[in-house]
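G., before I forget:
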Amino acid sequence: MSQINDFAFKMGTVNGTGSASANSLLMQAIFRMGIPVTGKNIFPSNIQGLPTWYEIRVSKDGYTARPPEIDLMVAINPATYKKDVACVRAGGYLMYDSSWPMPEELQRDDITILGVPFGTMCVETFERDRDRTLLRNIAYAGALAALLEIDMDVVHEMLNEKFGKKKALLDLNFTAIRLGYDYAKANFECPLPFHLKRMDQTSGHILMDGNTACGLGAVFAGATVGAWYPITPSTSLMEAFKAFCEEYRVDKATGLNNYCIIQAEDELSAAGIAIGANWAGARAFTNTSGPGISLMQEFIGLAYFTEIPCVIFDVQRVGPATGMPTRTQQGDLFSLAYASHGDTKHIVLFPANPEDAFYLSITAFDLADRFQTPVFVATDLDIGMNDWMVKRLQWDDTRAWDRGKVLNAEELEKVKSFSRYLDVDGDGIAARTLPGVGAKGAYFVRGSGHNKHGAYTEDSAEYQEVLDRLALKFHTAASVVPAPEFFVQPDAEIGIVSIGGCHAAVLEAVDRLKDQGIVADYMRIKAFPFCDDVQEFLVKHPVTFVVEQNRDAQLRAMLAIETGVARDRMTAVLDYGGEPLTARGVVSAVITHLEGATV
Amino acid sequence: MTSIAKPPVRHPGLTKNALGLTKRDYEGAMSTLCAGCGHDSVTAALVQAFWESDCPPHRAAKMSGIGCSSKTTAYFMKHSHGFNSVHGRMPSVTSGANAANRDLMYIGISGDGDSLSIGLGQMSHAIRRNVRMLYMLENNGVYGLTKGQFSAASDIGSTSKKGEANVQPPIDPCLLALTLGATFVARSFSGDKDQLVPIIKAGLAHNGFALVDVISPCVSFNDHEGSTKSYKYTRAHEVELTSSDFVPLRREITTPNADTEMTAVTMHDGSTVRFRKTHEGYDPTNREQAWLHVRECQKRGEVATGILYIEEGGKDMHALAKTVETPLVDLPYSVLCPGSKALDALMEEYR
């Protein structure tokens, strides 16, 4: 069977030994050959020493989900040999470092084992210990280049871009890549049955991770204040924001910053800073992960009740508690949608990939200002930290920001009097003023009970009036937030619903199901609250599967609560082990259920 | 209730400040605190100080957390925006507001529970960040709203209304602030308006975080015999380490003080804090000496008051972050959004 441009390979290495740069070199080289490619980093919560893996999937059809199976395993870390040899498909290959005798655990009759003495070659070739360790990775990249027919010109071009200014380093890398390449050419039948061939399927695309996209989105949205507390897997989002600000937001005349980033003492403070800055009129945000969301709950309720915009990025990781900080999950749906004590509900946006994350980040700032409320952008570690092949990001220069109802000094002059929480337009949204605008616009923000004028109250009717208007505002939001994305087919028998980072795998699963004669309509939820179309889809599909990455079927529960469709009418397809979803998992869950139902 | 408006009594004879405003224009809603509460005196001192400082009320923002003291932001300057936030979290909200709009005057009102227990971290880090704000810590050594529990400011041996003695050591906000690198540290007493008003004015002029710890007795739960935060105890044990005047920029200093070497400190805005007298050669520009002195007083059961430490010329949050002079909130979208050309160019780096 020909497997040109349609296979996956995986590297098993030791964290902190420099394999990341070799892996991204490989991925980028394939991308530059015009072939669709995806990389998934499965890494430990550790700086050095624990096992780490990197999966690269090549897909001529453009599938970007985690690969269904591994064709070639590069086993560099003896500590994980057993696991690594087991993950190869029957008929596949495993390459290991044959500097040492082959351990028994690598034996498997149904795969081909390729030994390359990377360690020995590096020791013989390089003098410094550090080079011997780091360049071993470049050497295996060289061997892969030979086995998979990665264009060496592209590899050279990339090394030149990276090390061009450092001649000595460049030479070392060239030498290392040749070590692996030449050894493979001389000792194995190259290329392997599955290999690469130039295509033209990546023009108009980029390789970007979601945290970079969100950080960039915040810059394009006009955010000026970023507050945060470092937490995996969210840290690189603020680092990206900072890097882009340094590029685009330094005043040329003075060299001073048109932004202010505050690394707070904890997530509570980060939320407080973001809320305070929004109250004062800046676009401000904070970024965190599940544990941070837990800490921010009180402030989220304050912003909801006092109606202060605030964008909060949640790059979800595996919970509960500390959980698995470097693994992915969608376990925060409840704690975002209904965050904080009392009756609260929040707008949550669910990007499916970095491209989506860029645009939805910008939407989030507009929605926060328009509805004067916290808005969450819920990504996950897989979206946030892995490089995805997505369409080039584009910007329309006519696009303006939507600051919502903010009365400036002139407009204040025209109104008879100003009451902070008075619903003049009947949409549940009252106009706000910014501090400093003038005495007429002054009001007092209080998290305690207040009436529509913003004054303190303990009167039931006055209090309920405010609470009911907040509900109306949320109802208004349902028709304004991004609608679901529908993928419908004629004669579909089943419906599939999914969210966020599951999207790529579900799209692929829909195709694989069709191969097996199961035609599915698919609805990808992009935002909470759900618009009417969501309920319609559920009603229309008596057999519906809800695919999500958590144990408790949180999305399914939310669909039931918010649409009134019975929970048990929807079948939960769950994956919560912490690794990115595969289409294979979805397909088998659907088929198993359908077979069970017909028996 | 703060929603009840004060009766609009006209006092045509009231003196006007440079803005043509009377003290009435700096007042707020009716206080709902207990009669005789120290906090109401602090509120009155704030009104006096703002009026005397010719501060346009709408250019000030009143920030607070939760507690009796935090409620008082509603009781002064009704023409200012106010923000009664979350317990112990006013410093972060103020940090954010200041980051967004550096041109406003920020007045944080807090208490010993809000600042020294639940909000100890937030206060400490706002000090480290050197957020430009006046931070009034209305310190009564007790939880008033929940009816009389000890606070972290309660002294060892100080008794509750029910007679129980406190056993845990107190946190002295002034000693803490000195340790954390605060650039303006003062203590006063709600019953000493003559001392408090100039301190508030100096704090407002300070280019950074200005802590004013005000002993402000709780008449309902901590003003009895045995309490070290009562009116009686404070009056008997107050030791004024420095006595100062605040001289705004526009007024000329006419009578330099010849008593001590250090007579005046020029503030960031050109105004002056003039020390009329200092206690036994006390130097409020020497952090280490200040700490030792205040600590000695504390050990003797004395309440050290006055501007305890002042350091002008330090960098506030914005100077440290190298933020533009224009408030970020005033930057137009055209300046903030890099635009399509920049994005197109950037995309080449992701191939």
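The longest helix of chain B spans residues 38-52. Confidence is low (pLDDT under 50) at residues 256-260 of chain B.

More on Monday.
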